[in-house]
Fold each of these.
Amino acid sequence: MEVKDILDQSVIDLKMNVSDKHSAIEHLSQLLYQAGYLSDLSGYIKDVYVRESEGITGMGNHIAIPHGKSNFVKKVGIAIGKSEKMVEWESYDDQPVNYIFLFAVPSDNENAKVHLKLLAELASKLGNDSIMKKLEHCTHFEELEEVFST
Amino acid sequence: MKIVAITACIAGIAHTYIAKEKLETAARELGDEIKVETQGSIGVENELSSEDIRDADVVIIAADIGIAKNRFKGKPIVEIPISLVMKSAKGVINKTREKLEKVEK
């Protein structure tokens, strides 16, 4: 399996219409829930905020990577949202964000090693400035797939 | 400068791996050699061998959790929160170089 195999079109919204951090997390969590990744929507969101309280998830370059390690996650996944507007977010460069990668990871991840490894690979790509620049220009799922295939 | 590093964050899901990438890129651009071990939710990856450690000039530990240090005995160690790498990986490596030069003088 490759990184792009973890991308799931049903939990990716590149024309996200949200006004703030909370509505962004809620919208992406909702997508995860509808696609069967979560057993409990509000329980999961609560766990995402637990992680938010532990430290900054705004990476700089207008990217945020909130993540919930939660009992309410049924399978490993990542929801991706690109917002039309910039959204206020605590970040390392004090800038707002418009790209949000919401990780869903089960608390008990013994059986999820393969997917977690893909998630880790995807995360490492988010640390690469040239990949970040390419992401900025993605407007379709296929383009996103392409970026993460390189 | 030859660097060995460890990255580890609280959840072990994202920051650990982003920080690795950032350190590697910064070291490459500054002309330093680096090997980064990640300690995350999938366990230890890219593990530092005893040879890696022996040949290194310095150890950077960028972690928000406790990391065992006994295998680095006798090596200069720079310990920082992972956020410093996220903010400026190049800054971390430059600072490390400065510290090392001071120690050597």
Amino acid sequence: MMEAVAAAAPVQTGVQAHNTPYLQISGIFKKFGDNVAVDHVDLDIRQHEIFALLGSSGCGKSTLLRMLAGMERPTSGRIVLDGQDITHLAPYDRPINMMFQSYALFPHMSVEQNIAFGLKQDKLPKGEIESRVAEMLDLVQMRKYAHRKPYQLSGGQQQRVALARSLAKRPKLLLLDEPLGALDKKLRQQTQLELVNTLEKVGVTCIMVTHDQEEAMTMATRIGIMSEGQLLQVGTPGEIYDYPNCRFTAEFIGETNLLTGMVSVDEPDHVEIDVPELEGRIWIDHGITGPKGMQVWTSIRPEDVRLDRKPPATPGVNSARGTVVEIAYLGSYSVYHVRLPSGKVIKSMVPSSRWYEAGEEAPTWDETVYVSWRPDLPVVMTR
Amino acid sequence: MNFKRFARKWLRPGRATVIAVPYFWLLVFFAVPFLIVLKISFAEQDIAIPPFTSLLNYEDGGLLHVTLNLANFQFIFGDELYADTYLSSLRVAFFTTVMCLLIGYPIAYAIARTDPARRNVLLMLVMLPFWTSFLLRVYAWMGLLKPNGIINHLLMSVGLISEPLEMFHNTFSLYLVMVYAYLPFMILPLYAHLVKMDIRLLEAANDLGARPLKAFFAITLPLSKNGIIAGSMMVFIPAVGEFVIPELVGGPDTLMIGKVLWNEFFDNNNWPMAAAVATVMVLLLIVPIGLFHRYETRELEGKNV
């Protein structure tokens, strides 16, 4: 079984040199009438990678995926897969298969026939088709349901059939369009891991599109953040969360406190940023590339914001005084919304054990508290 | 008051009423007339008003005679001409249906695939002929097809032909007008099925390596099966009994059961014979209708998507 699956991995042609990416998307631009859907996207994907395009609806991620599948033609730009220019190849001539959002299983065909459909188009010998279908059914553990019709299956089972169908042809590139969007939340979390395991077992190179950041973070080796047709940032889930390069990414991935300010001190080992909303300064223990007087945005994650009753040692630097206006108790932690005199609300995520360990009562509504953070934690962004 | 009890008491009769309305309609306008026709078919021709004998005779001795005259049916099944006529009707209806399907499918497909704004205009064009009386439209065809009609006149004046084309009162004109008249009944149900088909299924087929033509035969065609069946029934069933078109534009050798019915009823004033001919026709049609109905029910129960 394992050998069979290993054989299902895309065949390395060996044409490519070590450092050339498996899939090269360069300068892809797509216009629908006057609307720019995808705006000069450059992206390199390595072999065996699971890459997630993440963005809200209408950001162009689905259009980009459809251009990879060949269902839309780019207005300009080039797509090269494994050394082959596929920009203008018809969908049925591409070594790429897609798992559609809500699966698009053929309703009049059984599970088996659905999986065999692509293989039949290649006119493979009957025995070959049968063994490949059996292999796929085993891979997604659907052998028992081989003769069922799609409407006789649950959502999760349909998803597995759709996956098997898109893997059956051993594509060089697998596209997943909102792979778990049609499942309910509980099933989704379980299926995420199951799906990643299957993809890794097969070793297929994979690009998925999702609007669900949790899904992207769990499944992908790298994530690309898209907004208004542009690819804003590409990186591992950790890089994207810890080092967002722009306001959009910082706010889109997880929760954050965004503060606007101006660089007032710019030294190689530290910078200071004047933030009117804090009525104080942010002191950061590393240099940034940018001149003095430049407008910047600072992102501080709620879990990095400390909440205290006592004023901090250095008032006006990396801290502020405010009133508790909202408390969301979430079991192991609470999120406090603290309103500063400027009106700005800072969110602070406080572990429930914090007060117990300090031997204090947890602060309550309308109490005056101080928020503060370590100088190494804020992320400075220039756009 | 308990809502469930309230619902049981008041909503159930409401539901029964809703269901009863169509059944009542069928009873009054289909079942009762058919039983009357059936009754007449077992009578004998008579010179009276109405021109047939009664099935029930009450005699002085207190005897109630029921007279069932099977001669009409015997005659229908005994005379080859009737068998030929039925077969001919079925044949004409069959080929009309096939031609409507071949012409109607591409039209329905094209309408279903155009953008929604233009779709309604195209559908209007399909339905536009209904705004003119059916009879007028058939007469219009007569004016076009006659030996000295518009088409022949035009072709001769241009000099393409010297003799008028034989395209009236023959098989050609019969099928032409039949297909013309029944085409919308094929297009509309086909359209209704094709328009709700998920385009992504075709994209998926393309993605899996099927070229557009292959995808059509593998996906679109099987998924529009119910539309094909519905459209075919809508054409086939009325086409079997069609009278006006074969009478007005068909050839002298066109045998259609509608024509026979007309002859028996109006020319021979033989109501019982006409009723028997009609009864056999209805029974012939009930078979395909029954099959269609069973298919539809299965589909509704979700066993045949």
